[in-house]
């Protein structure tokens, strides 16, 4: 069945709507009400209630595309790239396209956008977020939400709040002072509610100040619902509810994917003895019905058949977003754009040149109907005008090809590993199962039983065996684990140990071996959550080097080299954090290509900052392509050959070295007490670099293009204002070059007379201006009164102190063109 394409936004409830909701609630029994506040995991939806005409409301993950039951959909650039466009209108168009894709599949709740603040490039989900600055993130989020909800689909803002790391995300507490919480980590969520009008908010896995977000009354009720006036529904992240009564009273409205805690077995006794009020349950049902009625959803599970699943208009939007998201951060000697007329041979090398790499990993991963690689797009663009050679080199996640193929032998000489399984998480006592496993390549999700005799949810295992070296030199052992602790011994030496930390993702250990030498291995595992996975592989440095050398052979003799490296859905992914630096083989490929060819162009696929200090000055140009979506190859090729003038600006700073960043000593749970104190406070991101005087490698807001711009004729509507007033400013943007392009005017505010320490400047406005060659356009930017405020924890309020401020206008946080004083009176 299909529905018509009419739709409407999530609107504030009217008295008539509230009366209709009240009438529906009055028809329900207590058991029926409770049934509605838990999800249906079989359908990834809410529970239907025929009595009141409420269908099951389907949900799909995002934010890079409509990730619905593994079905293909348009794959868009990652939000980190969308933020790099600094284009509100374009991001709203992106949201609208996503909303259309959702409607075509009958999706009611689109589980996006993610708007957590990036504190460290190591966070495995940075690519899902909008960068390091709360104002930029809030502006992008509001635009994205408006677009999604214009199509009659509810956005679901996540992950509320302070979920800025992926390691042990269920167990670590983000400990934060009130001012930092209010100034850095909540503003984007507030903008999503007040400016975007989001219909739903999703609570985070982590704890905040020792309390799980799903049972955090201050966050869910006091701030979100009462202070910000949020009328929609608060749902849990998947399996992020830990106490039914605490969550119900804190303000969680819907437990997903099922009612494991907020169910009749827990809540009816709590209602009977007064621990939970009936009004509390009624409010949860009311909020669900409010979203249902406000969007005008039909009383069935229909979809909009007028929209094609593989929508050409969605593909066009994906291409437009990618074109504006690419950030050029280096262009030595005008290495770019390449001129086909002056080239005879072009080398396109690296693991991400072909096939296409479009997304990071995890719940956001969207399988497209089709995707185009950089290599394919370059060939399509230049035709037969020049010779193109290609080699992928070493793939940074090659272990994934090896997990199911690595060979092992038991002590008795049989193929495989001798395995012992224990019905406890401590390897104690006699094993309940003993067998030979051909390899360790297990995913125990979906309720699968690891071995006969395992009845406990948390269990352990040990594998013993040997490997025989194929080369001389270093050999690498790779273990991928999720939701468990593991340790690996090679020749009785502890090579990998995350037994206590339980770090997810791939860990690598190494040992020197001679060809033909046998090494003994012991791998131990303990599950910390029921749905876990564990994989083991090994290879040699010599094998990796042979792959790199083949890529270099392709690059030699070329007049230009495009090196496509970075991360992918296996190495940058939900559930674990990733390293700051590229893999050693990719760095070696970059440096050796740069020695062979001065026009070496590096194309980075990534979701956050990458360590470039060792190679950025050696190469001709660097393009940050993010996770570019299905059309990324086209946009990258167009940029390389000058058909697209790059106009993206970084939504975060890139540090020269790890210890330069503000979160270096306050990101990981180093003392293993499951608490991380956000010691950098409000001085994070570019605020930290401005405050300390440390020079970033590449500053926040920076990006190069192919045409120069000048900012001229800056003016303010007033040099002094009353407290509570805003101010407008204007500046001419002049394209002084020979091609069309776009510049981003960035407006920062500095407080010169504050009673509390404040950053030297903070982003408070921006405008992206596109100009033809020689054209001048005037940018107009409004600063609201809130641009001059800070949060005073002593007063529990945002305050504006009269005194002198400074307005700074430029093209990045470090490239300031104009400064002007501003006096705020009483």
Shape: globular
Looking at the structure, the CATH topology of the domain at 15-294 is TIM Barrel
Write down the Rg: 27 Å
Binned strand content: 25-35%
Unreliable stretches covering 5 or more consecutive residues:
1-7
Q: Could you state the CATH homologous superfamily of the domain at 15-294?
A: Glycoside hydrolase, family 3, N-terminal domain
* Level-1 CATH class name of the domain at 15-294: Alpha Beta
CATH architect. name of the domain at 15-294: Alpha-Beta Barrel
| Biggest sheet strand line-up | 11-26-25-24-12-13
Report the structural category.
alpha/beta
Largest sheet: 6 strands, mixed
- Mean pLDDT over all positions: 95
Helix content range:
10-25%
Number of strands: 37
Walk me through the structure.
The protein is an alpha/beta fold and 826 residues long. Among the domains are: 15-294, Glycoside hydrolase, family 3, N-terminal domain (TIM Barrel), CATH 3.20.20.300; 405-438 and 445-531, Galactose-binding domain-like (Jelly Rolls, Sandwich); 709-825, Immunoglobulins (Immunoglobulin-like, Sandwich), CATH 2.60.40.10. It contains 18 helices and 37 strands. It has a six-stranded mixed sheet, sandwiched between helices. Strands 15-14-17-22-19-20 form a six-stranded antiparallel sheet, with no helix packed on it. The protein has a five-stranded parallel sheet with strand order 3-4-5-7-10. It starts with 14 loop residues before the first helix and ends with a strand.
